[in-house]
Amino acid sequence: MPDTLRVLHLSTWNVPCGIASYCANLVKSLDAAGVMNDVFPLHPHEWQSYLPGDVRQFMERVRIKARDYDLVHIQHEHGLFGQGMGMSFTIKRFGEVLDILKQENKPVVTTFHTELRAGSRRLPHYLQKAKDWLRTWKWRRHVVRHFNETNGHARAIVHTAKTRFIFARSGIDPAAIHMVPHGCLPKRELDLDNKTAKEKLGIPPTASLLTIFGFVGAYKGHDIALEALKRLPEKYHLAIVGGAHPESRDHFLDDLLTKIGKKLRPRVTVTGYVERETADLYYAATDICLAPYRADVNLSASGAIMWALSSGKPTIASKIDAFEPTRREADCFMSVTAGLARELAWAVEKLDGDKPLQQKLVTNALRYNEQHSWPKTALAHVEIYEQILGRTARRTAGDHECDLALPRAA
Fold it and tell me: 204: Cβ–Cβ under 8 A, 6 or more apart, which residues?
């Protein structure tokens, strides 16, 4: 673009949050690529106290802020537009944001970090079927039309082909969906060697340390890792480097601490939230990174697995839709069936005893990280921005007879 591209990002910001971290890495790399960026911070917890007038004020702030930018990029997770308020509420609020930006003639790019959620099966079948139908109807009414109209102003970014398929099935035109893998950090350069780091952490230097990085949540399979640890010899220790998400209100962490019990306590560490210096200490001490996610997770991708792949340590991860495209492309981690503790324990011992396999996985992971580095990911975003702005510019100029076709998804 001849002029400096100005992009406003709607996202959580400067808080302990995976999407906030994703947005920060993207903005930093876009800055380096010559894009002018600003962030309109989202505060998910505030929706629960909003009155109708507060919602209108929020929408008006978005409208006024967006006027100074060429394009708006939304980092989307359902709770960001109505945490604790239910899917129907979040769909409508997200749709209202899209309405406001359409009225201002602002092109929109939305990165969908989670897939459309399946309904709970706790209700009777006929009630759940009616609820699912209503949610689908609202999604199509409030959201889909922005991506499908002849003069539509919105594009979608997803991280995997499976997520692209799901959103296309939801009604969004496949030509409006771009696939950009999750950006990767460079290899962590650590000052300490493995044994020294363990000594600093009070872990026996001869121990084999298994580590799960990131927020603690039921979908990440920390309890599966505990069950696997029970089946492993005493030399294996488990570090859970992270705590419950600040917005989480479930009992999973408390249940997890209860499951550790007296017998496992000498072999398990739960750190809670840690600063970068302490996290790096655990990276140095780690022998194998774990990502034992459950099968029913609806993530499009996970920053936690990308952190593991940048650690320079071999990784074991579940066979889930969010991870498998990376494994198929790069063969950069050992995969296990989600939810099976015995298989996870077997994989740990197999990988721990196979140094050539460890080196292969680490080498492939670092190669994958370079191929999908944040600078390269940012350039892929710039290309999408330019495509939608070029299309919008032609229509603004009145060239309606020679409509520009939507580009195919990458």
Answer: 198, 235, 237
The secondary element (H helix, E strand) that includes residue 290 is strand 288-291
Residue 316 lies in a domain: yes
Q: Is 239 helix (H, G, I), strand (E, B) or coil?
A: strand
| CATH classification of the domain holding 288 | 3.40.50.2000
pLDDT band at 409 (very low <50, low <70, confident <90, very high): very low
Q: Within this chain, do residues 155 and 281 fall inside the same structural domain, yes or no?
A: no
User: What is the rounded CA–CA span in Å between residue 63 and residue 40?
Assistant: 11
Q: What is the pLDDT of residues 296-305, one digit of tens each?
A: 888 877 777 8
CB under 8 Å to 259, separation ≥6 — which residues?
223, 226
Query: In this structure, are 364 and 377 located in the same domain?
Result: no
282/287 Cα distance (integer angstroms): 10
Residue 70: which domain range?
Answer: 6-183+373-396
Closest C-alpha among 178, 176, 211 to residue 308: 211
Inform me whether the pLDDT recorded for 23 exceeds 90: yes
Q: What is the value of pTM for the model shown?
A: 0.87
345 in the same domain as 212: yes
Do 206 and 350 lie in a common domain? Answer: yes
Count other Cβ atoms within 10 Å, centred on residue 77.
21
- Rounded Cα distance between 224 and 154, Å, is 40
